[in-house]
Amino acid sequence: MSSDNSLLHNIQRCSWAEEHELLRNYHDHEWGVPVHDDRMLFELLVLEGAQAGLSWLTVLKKREAYREVYRGFNPEIIATWTERDIERCVADAGIIRNRRKIESSVNNARRFIETAGESGSFDSYIWKFVNGTTIHNTWQTIKDIPATTDISDRMGRDMKKRGFSFAGSTICYAFMQSAGMVNDHVTGCFRYRELAGLQQ
Question: Does 56 qualify as catalytic in the annotation?
Answer without folding.
Answer: yes
